[in-house]
Amino acid sequence: MGGFSSSDRGAGGRGIIAGINVTPLVDVTLVLLVIFIVTAKIVVTPALPMDLPEASQGEPVQVVLSVLLPQDGSTLVNGARIASDDELTQRAKRALAEDTDLRAVIQADGAVPHRRVIATLDALKSAGVSRIAFGALPQTPAGPQSPTDIQPAAEQ
Fold first, then answer.
1. 0.90 exceeded by pTM
2. Domain interval for residue 102
């Protein structure tokens, strides 16, 4: 019971298998690897060969309509002072006609009344601008910086 004698080996003289032959396992694994490599190459190849042009700059250009609302009550669109919300609507419509992916950014001073910001938002919405964001400045260790500290390029 405890061990094997020479009579337990049978006619062939073979005993218990002491090791596993891994050669067939490696062969099957390598064949599968080759099949996957060939299949992946076929899948990646496009159905129609194309000669696409190359560009030095691959980033899309994003058009932004900048609307500044300083503390003094005026409105600046792309750095130019405008007289009324009607003019803002007209400029926004023109800019939207030139680029349908137009994005508007409203940068309002902290002291500007909320109703003025909402009126500007309504003017942009009535012009058909649907992508509107509010600009903010990151806080510095000395404290928050107001938008009036940054002068538009047209007024410098």
1. no
2. 64-136
